Amino acid sequence: MSAAPKLNDSHLTLDEDISRIINKAITETFGAFTGIIPVLKSSERHNKAIEERYEISGIIAFIQESIEGTLAIRFKQDTILKLLSRVYGEELTTLDNKVIGGVAEISNVIHGIAKEELNMQGYHYQMCLPVVIIGDNHTVVSALSGHKLVMKYDLEGEEAIIELVLHKQQ
Known about the structure:
alpha+beta
């Protein structure tokens, strides 16, 4: 299946296609890394900040000629430690460099899958390096002034939150 090529001035929009692409990226990434198939619990579009607090977040940008959006994946500490313990085959108990690397890699793979799919549709997204934020009860507030897509996933009783924030195009 091939979509019509996008024009150079095309930008992401929060539509069913981007929801499908992000869901595919999440499902493939967690399936490959942990053997868990994520279950989408909810998907909302809005402009407000997420009120829940987290201990670790991976953030990565979507950039063509300029930044168009950011993708954040957020976890509670217990959740990411359980998930990455499965990945590494050992019990992880603290948010150390191994966990930071794991969150960065999960963020990178999700972005890479989504980027590949979008670029097959005619976009020209570049690879970006993820940033990992750690801190008790933190929240991430984007400086981008656009709409948000927030997707909550169940991972065998654990929760992951994905937030895609799109820059408001002038």
